[in-house]
Predict the 3D structure of the following.
Amino acid sequence: MHLDRLLKDIREGYRLTEEDAAALLNIRGREVFSILATADEMREKKAGPVISYVRNQNIHITNICKNLCGFCGFGKSPGDEGAYCNDKADIEKKVALAVERKVTEICLLSGVHPDFTTESYEEILNWVTRAAPGVHIHAFSPDEVVHASSMSGIPTVEVLERMKKAGLNSLQGTAAEILDDDVRSVICPNKLKSGMWAEIIREAHTMKIPTTATIMYGSYEHARDRARHLSILREIQDETQGFTELVPLTYIHTGTPLYQQGIARPGATGMEDILLVAVSRLFLDNFKNIQVSWGKLGLKMSQLSLASGANDFAGTMFADDVTKDAGAESAEYLDPSVMERIAGDLGRPLRQRTTLYNLL
Ligand code: SF4
């Protein structure tokens, strides 16, 4: 590969192939810096100088999960020590706190509870919408949609319709992990297959339910699997334009069975983290927004990512037990004044946004 020529072609509008993306993800040494610089240039062209963030709060419903994925330290079986499922009063209390904190988005994060049906999800949405009218609800994954569909014996489209009617504003693009069934059979064998993930996302987009796109990398997959994953996301976005952003999720390994059993690597290196952001910016020419997950990356790597193709600082969060239980040091609350300092040091403005990227 002649890197300088390739980067020049990208600047002039060339669309990278999946093979190009895999090759770029494998580059090491000082050539990496040319990739980062080009990705930063493309970020400026596509998204401008603004670094955005959303004032949001994560609310965990339950950590009881039927999937027990090997890369996760959060999910528990019913009856396990520390297993919980919040009831109506617990959830309303958390929502009231979120409203007090003036969040514009509530993000519901959960295990896939084996007993939850479509009615359970509707009920939760009803509790939240009543307690936080006007606040955007970003919740549930394609895996939860499929689970609700099989529990209630109705098509997934009907589950999505009912969720939307009960107050769901956008669906989480989680459960994507790596969209390759060989990798999934090792890291999350009980989760829905990659084709089904793509199908639910397409259904949601067709129904005008926007979703995020995620990639969970650094555990067991190779660069070619990451490139395949990005290619699937780009293909869907070409068809639907329904993804709001890419959320790269670096694997936090210490508290997870996959690492403890010696199957997964101890997460991505810093170079892999930053290249994933940069190559995503170059490859996903139909995405405007690329986010940094500060709870997983830490603030210093987040800043470098924002200088290498990313444009969004994610949210204030207030809680992220999923990341903490996997072994991350800090994933609680990030004050916008800290984001401001980091953005200012990059010479760029910080702006609050809505979930759907309207600047406030
Ligand atoms: S990643 Fe999600 S689905 Fe998998 S075990 Fe953890 S909570 Fe459950």
The domain at 17-353 is CATH 3.20.20.70 (TIM Barrel). The mean pLDDT is 96. The CA atoms of residues 112 and 144 lie 6 Å apart. Residues 223-240 form the longest helix (18 residues).
